[in-house]
Every structure is written in structure tokens, then in C-alpha cells.
User: Fold these one by one.
Assistant:
Number 1:
Amino acid sequence: FDLPYNLCTQAAIHRILRQKKANGEEREISFIFLRDFYVDRAEEYFDGDLQFGQADEFMDDLLQTSPSLLSTPDGLQGLVDPVGVAELIIQMRNEVAQDWKALMQYVPEDHTSLRSSLISNQFQRSSPLDNGGSAAFQ
């Protein structure tokens, strides 16, 4: 359960950043804050062999961040709202989970040809005939 939960949280963050960028919002304070917050912590919370509950730890870290004024090197300034960003992640995580759930409904159909190939290969390997047609069980 923890791996899909972590992946869903990470996918939600990626989806938010991609959508904001596609909408031309990459210069908005919320985009810059989330991007930097995520990039600075991705290895700790999402990469490699992780302890249980890392997605929740990431969200806790985000929620414990105080609202503050963010200034960028190019002169952009604005108020950072960590609670608002966390709410956005939670909403997007729900969307991601619903999308994945919908996709998983089609797994049996998607794997039909794979199953057919596997069964065919198993029958070929377990055929009682080998060595040019002579029976293996004599």
C-alpha cells in the first residue's frame, strides 16, 4: 500500500507542476515554491529504499512550513501558502488515484495477448515430443 501511495503523491506533484507550466504559470510564486520544495526533498522522500510513510512525512514537512515571502533572483515576490499547496496536492492525488483505478480496470483485457503467448509457450515446452518427433516418455 505504501509504494502506490508514495508514487501517487509524487505523480500528483509532477502533474501539478506540468499543468502550471503548460498554463504559463511557471513564474507564479506557488509554482516556484512547490518546484523548489519538491526538488530539495525528492531524494529524501521519494527516491530509493524508503521507510514506511514517506509521502505523509513529505506532506507533514510541507504543512509545517511557515507562510513566508518568497523572492526570486529575477525580482518576482509573493506570499507562499504551504497549506494551499498541500490542499492542491491532496486534490490532485485523488485525481491521480481515480485515473489509475480507471486504467487498472482494463488490465485483464490488456494482458489477454500476453497470457495467450505465455500459455502457447508453456504448451510448446511441455510437449511430450522431442528429438525429432520421438516420444519423451517411453
Note: The beta strands are 68-71, 77-80, 129-130, 134-135.
Number 2:
Amino acid sequence: SGYCPQWYEESMLNCCVDLEEVKTKGVTIGTVACLAKCQGLAVDAVYGSNSTVAEFRRVVKRTCTAPSATTTQPTSFLVVSYTRKVIGQTGSGHFSPIGAYDEASDHVLILDTARFKYGPHWVSLPLMFEALLPIDPATGKSRGYMVLGYDGSE
């Protein structure tokens, strides 16, 4: 049987941080990782400052390749926590999944979660990595990326 995503409402996400605080302060990479774990996902969170462009590229390739013949859909997904200004956008810190990788151009497809502001768009992988490096003022650490996964047996 294939994976069936759950439906969500805000109250289901109250396991790591008070939702009223989220509305005023936003979330950090650590909070998003905690929320994902609360929903039963495996999480591998990496701060940009603890990675390299080459390592990030390996993770992008691994998560953006077609599933194996034994699975019908991907079992892991890449989410980036980045600084919008680095890629020439308005705003500051933001989270979005990476939907694809074009090896020929070395670009990633950002599936922006704020579609009212920016639709899906391609960004060079080295520039995306640069956008992971600025310090998040809420944590004093760089932004980064997370591989979220499940075992595919649900």
C-alpha cells in the first residue's frame, strides 16, 4: 500500500512549541525538525555551517532522484531553511522543499511554500547553499537543510 498523507490542523502541531509563539516569532530549524519527529518522520537536520557545497549537492541528488524499482514514490524529502535575501528575494528566513535537481545546470527547484509571493523557481545550487549560511538571529546558528523521511510501509 502507498503512503497516505494525514490531514492536519494547527492543534496537531502543538508538540514542540506553543502555537501562539509560532504566530509571532516563527520557527527555527530545530522546531521544524521536532515537529516532523512528532508526526512520525525520521529527520536528519544539518546546519549549513556544518556542511559543504559538495555534501549539499550529494544530499540533493540523493533526495531528488527517482525512487527505486521497489518503491512507487519517494520516501525522503529535502527541506531547506534559507535566507531569502541571499537569492535576491524580499523577506528573511524561510522554509521550502526542494522539488527537483537539474544536474546539467546545477540548479535546484524550490517549491516555495509562500506561493502567493513566489511560485516554484530554479536557483543555482551554489547560491542555494550560500543562502543556508547566514545566522538565524533566533538561534545564533546558521540556517540549513533537513532530510525528512518515512519507511514507506504505511
Note: The CA atoms of residues 49 and 133 lie 6 Å apart.
